[in-house]
Structures are given as C-alpha cells and as structure tokens.
Amino acid sequence: MLRIIGTVVRSAASSTRSIVTPFSSTTLVQRNISAPVQSDEPIDIPNPYEKERRECILCKHNIVPNYKNIKLLSQFQSPYTGRIYGRHITGLCKQKQEQVEKAIIRAQNCALMPTYHKDMDFFQDPRLFDPEKPVRPHKY
Amino acid sequence: MPSYELAMVLRQMSRPELVSVLKRTAESILDKGCIIRNLENLGTRALPHKISEHGVVHREGSYFTITFDSAPTKISDFMEEFGRDIDIVRRRIFKIEEPEEFQCTLHEEMLPPAYRKDVQEMIDIAKRKQKPKFKYNSGLDYYPFQK
Question: CA-CA 20 to 30 A from B134: which of A90, A114, B53, B122?
C-alpha cells in the first residue's frame, strides 16, 4: 500500500516538474518525503466493536444473599419442584450462583424455606429471569 | 473468638413460655463464657412442612436467631444441649464469615467457548493426555508406502 502511495506521489511530482521550474519541484519532492503522516494511515484506537462489560443482577446491585432473606432466595426456586434453578437459567456469575445455592440450602435446613415447592406467599413476586428461555442452552 | 449464629425454631407456645425458653438458651450460652451479640425474632408462622421432633409433630413454629461469640470447641456442646431441649424443634449453628470481595465474572463466562479460560485449560489437559505418536522423519506429511 505504502509503495503504491509512493509511486503516486512520485508521478505527481514528475507531472509538476514538467510544468514548474526544476528548483521549486525539488523542494516539493523533499517535503513529500519528510512528511511521514498520511491522512489515511491506520490510527491506534481501542476496539470500537468491543461489547460493554456485563454484570449479573446481584453483582450490579451489590447484594450478598443471606439465608434469612427468603423472599429473595425463593425467586431462584422452581415453583413446580422447589429445585434451585441453574446458572444457565438464572444468569448469575459463578460465585453469586454458589452463594445463592448455599443460602437456599441453609434456609431449607433451618425450616425457613420449603424444599419441594415454592412458598405460596411469594408466587406473585416479579420474575428475575425466564426459565423457558435460558441464557445458555441446557447441559442435557 | 469467632462469631456464630444460632438459628432455631421453637414450638408453638404462649408468650411467657417463649420468654422462658429464650432466657434458658441465652443463659446456657452465657454460662459457657460466651458473649451474646444479638437476638433476633423472625416471627411465628406455619412451618414449610410438618416436622416430627421429640415424638411430637409440629406444624407451627417461632423463629429466632442468636448471634454470639464463642470458642469453636463449645459448638458441639451447644448442639447437644439444645438437641435435648424439647421446646426447640430445630437448631443450626453457622459461623459468621465476611463475604469475600470478587469481580463479577459473567462477562468472561458469556464469551465464546474458545475465549473462555476454563475451556482453554480443558483443551490443554486433553492435549497433554494424548499418546505420543511415532514419527517417521521422512519429511513427508503422509506415509509413502502401502499400509
């Protein structure tokens, strides 16, 4: 590419030399060589197509799940079977999912939360995610 | 002394009885030379499932938590002592730990598999596990004779 630009510049210089006096034409050629920055040269910038950094919903609001906070924990529980939804459904990061699972098991152990269904009081709670549309495809 | 949290479910009782049970448990903790930091009432409500304890089926209970500082060796004694108390339906003791600081890794987890660190590690392991193949050193990328 550079070589092509060089030839173009040289041809332009030669064309000017034919019209203008030889003295002025040499100065023109010299100036062209001494100017290394071209207008169409690639510039050094960060990747403009890089995606924005995503955060999981608990990290975003800086929430640490606690086993006494049953209303929050029951949102990660299936209303049909009481099982904890996986990471591919909840869309949490690895550490937060682990914390949530630990807290739910703790709450179930303390008889704060049911194990085979979701508490009826929390059925109308807003849904954080759609179990029908997992973030990632199911493992099986 | 590390901090612990005692989560317990008391059976359905009248208020004065409840007070006496709480006093009894708190005193037994204090008698062992421990410090009570906090006592929390989480309310009385129906249990998520019936619980059979000490030969009685319980369907309602009062939830309490006691935060205390104690020596780790005394925890098993507490569990044994409260296990004998017929007014306590369920008891659990958890150590209180400060949550570790960490960066959300969801962005890295959502990258295509080839860019994920754990996948790259798995590929490395698979490469290491491959059996070494015999090389003919013929300079050809195929076997020149009939096999």
Answer: B122
Per-residue pLDDT tens over the stretch B79-119: 999 999 999 999 999 999 998 888 999 999 988 899 999 99
B139 min Cα distance to partner chain A (Å): 37
Q: Is residue A117 scored above 70 in pLDDT?
A: yes
CB contact under 8 A, A111 and B99: no
Residues A19, B9: Cα–Cα separation, whole Å: 102
Q: What is the CATH number of the domain that holds A61?
A: 4.10.640.10
Cα–Cα distance measured from residue A23 to residue B70, given in angstroms and rounded to the nearest whole number: 96
Q: Do residues B5 and B93 make contact, with C-beta atoms less than 8 angstroms apart? A: yes
- What's the average model confidence in pLDDT over B5-16? 95
Q: Tell whether A48 is covered by a domain.
A: no
pLDDT tens column, A12-62: 444 444 444 444 444 444 555 556 678 888 889 998 998 899 999 999 999
For B22, residues 6+ apart whose C-beta sits below 8 A from its C-beta are B10, B39, B64
Q: Which amino acid is at B48?
A: P
Point out the residue among A54, A93, A111 whose CB comes nearest to the CB of B90: A111
Q: Establish if A64 belongs to a structural domain.
A: yes
Contacting residues of B for A59, CB less than 8 Å apart: 104, 106
Question: What number of other Cβ atoms are within 10 A of residue B21's Cβ?
Answer: 20
Tokens matching residue B46:
């129906």
Query: What confidence score (pLDDT) does residue A26 get?
Result: 46
Element spanning A3, H or E: helix A2-19
Homologous superfamily of B3-95? Ribosomal protein S6/Translation elongation factor EF1B (3.30.70.60)
